[in-house]
Design a protein that fits this description.
alpha/beta; Rossmann fold; 2 domains; 3-stranded antiparallel beta sheet; 10 strands
Length: about 325
C-alpha cells in the first residue's frame, strides 16, 4: 500500500532526559510549547523566562546576561506610550514604572543564572535570521516595541555571524556548566510578514547554522521540529487558523517525536501513565459524594502518593484530599 507521507525515521538520542533532569528552554514561541509539555509531564523546566525571542543574536544576548547575572545597560531601556520596555526582551516584560521593570528583569536574570548553572539540557529554538538594528547604536534588538521603522535597519544575518555569536556564548556556558547539553532547533512557525520567499531564506540560514553547530560541538544536537512540520505533516490542516502556527495536533505530534527521541525509559513509561492520571484529575463527577466516586478518589490518591518519591505531586495530592469525605 502506498504511503502518502514522508515520516522521519525513528531516532533515539545518546543523551536522554530523565524525570530528575533540569531543562531550560529559550527562543521562539515553539520553545514555550515544548517547555510547556515538559512541565506538564513533571520535568523541572524553566520556560522562556524572558518572553518570546526569535533571532539567534537576541537569544544569545539574554543567555550572556543570565550567565554573568549583571545589570542590563541603561541605553536598552525605552518608553513607549508611558510604558517602560527593554529592547533586549519581549514586551511581556514591561511596566508602568522603570524601577519596577528593572527589578523584574533582575529577578528573571537571577533565576535564569542559578538554573543555568545546574541545568542538564538547554533547548534553543531559533525563529528567524532577520534582525533589526538600532540606527543610533548599531545594536540588534530582540523587539522593536512598535517604534517607528525609521529607527531601525533590517538585516539578514549571515551563517558566519550566527556561528560566531553562538561560539562566544557556548564558551561562556561551558565555563559555568561543563556538563550542559544543548539541543538546537528551527521553529516551524512561519514569519509571513517577511514574505514567504524571505521566510524561506531565513529558515534556510538557520537550518544550515544548526547543522554546522551539531557538526562542530560534541554536546550540541539538532531536533528536526521544522522538518516534522514541513515534510512529515505537510498539510494546512495542521496549522491554526492564522496559517502561521502549528495546530494543537501538530504540536502534540512533534512533542511525541521529542520525548521518544530524548526521554529515557522511565520518561517513556511515565508519560502515558501520567496522561491517564491527569484525565482522572480533570474528571468531574455527577455525584461527587457518592460511594463510587469516593472510591475513585481514594484509588487516585494512592497512585499519586506512589509517585511522590519520583516527582513533585503535592498540589495534586492536596487537590484530591480536599474532595475525599471523612
Amino acid at each position: 500500500m502506498k504511503t502518502f507521507r514522508t515520516p522521519l525515521p525513528d531516532a533515539t538520542s545518546l543523551h536522554s532526559i530523565s524525570l530528575q533532569h533540569k531543562v531550560f528552554t529559550l527562543g521562539s514561541c515553539f520553545a514555550e510549547t515544548m517547555g510547556g509539555y515538559l512541565q506538564e509531564y513533571k520535568i523541572n523546566c524553566l520556560v522562556n523566562p524572558f518572553g518570546t525571542l526569535y533571532s539567534p543574536l537576541a537569544i544569545h544576548k539574554v543567555l550572556r546576561y543570565s550567565i554573568f547575572n549583571e545589570p542590563v545597560p541603561n541605553h536598552t531601556y525605552i518608553t513607549q506610550q508611558d510604558i517602560h520596555l527593554n529592547y533586549d526582551f519581549h514586551s511581556a516584560l514591561s511596566d508602568r514604572s522603570r524601577p519596577s521593570l528593572e527589578k523584574r528583569i533582575t529577578e528573571r536574570l537571577g533565576t535564569a543564572h542559578h538554573f543555568l548553572r545546574a541545568t542538564d539540557t538547554l533547548i534553543i529554538t531559533y525563529g528567524t535570521a532577520w534582525v533589526y538594528e538600532r540606527m543610533d547604536t548599531g545594536e540588534p534588538v530582540a523587539n522593536c516595541h512598535k517604534k517607528p521603522s525609521t529607527e531601525f535597519n533590517k538585516i539578514l544575518l549571515t551563517q558566519k555571524k550566527i556561528l560566531e555569536s553562538f561560539d562566544q556564548v557556548y564558551q561562556e556556558l561551558m565555563a559555568i556548566n561543563k556538563g550542559l547539553r544543548i539541543i538546537v532547533t528551527v521553529s516551524p512557525v512561519r514569519h509571513l510578514k517577511d514574505t514567504l520567499e524571505l521566510n524561506s531564506v531565513s529558515k534556510s540560514l538557520l537550518r544550515v547554522a544548526c547543522h554546522t553547530l551539531q557538526q562542530s560541538y560534541v554536546n550540541v544536537e539538532y531536533f528536526p521540529a521544522y522538518e516534522i512540520m514541513m515534510d512529515d505533516l505537510r498539510d494546512y490542516r495542521f496549522y491554526k487558523e492564522d496559517m502561521i502556527h502549528p495546530s494543537a495536533d501538530a504540536e502534540q505530534y512533534i512533542w511525541t517525536h521529542f520525548y521518544e527521541r530524548y526521554g529515557d525509559a522511565h520518561v517513556k513509561a511515565f508519560i502515558p501513565k501520567w496522561k491517564k492520571i491527569k484525565e482522572s484529575l480533570n474528571h468531574r463527577a455527577f455525584h461527587p459524594k457518592g460511594m463510587a466516586h469516593q472510591q475513585f478518589l481514594k484509588s487516585l490518591l494512592a497512585q499519586l502518593e506512589a509517585l511522590g518519591n519520583t516527582i513533585t505531586v503535592d498540589a495534586e495530592i492536596e487537590h484530591v484530599k480536599k474532595q475525599i469525605l471523612h
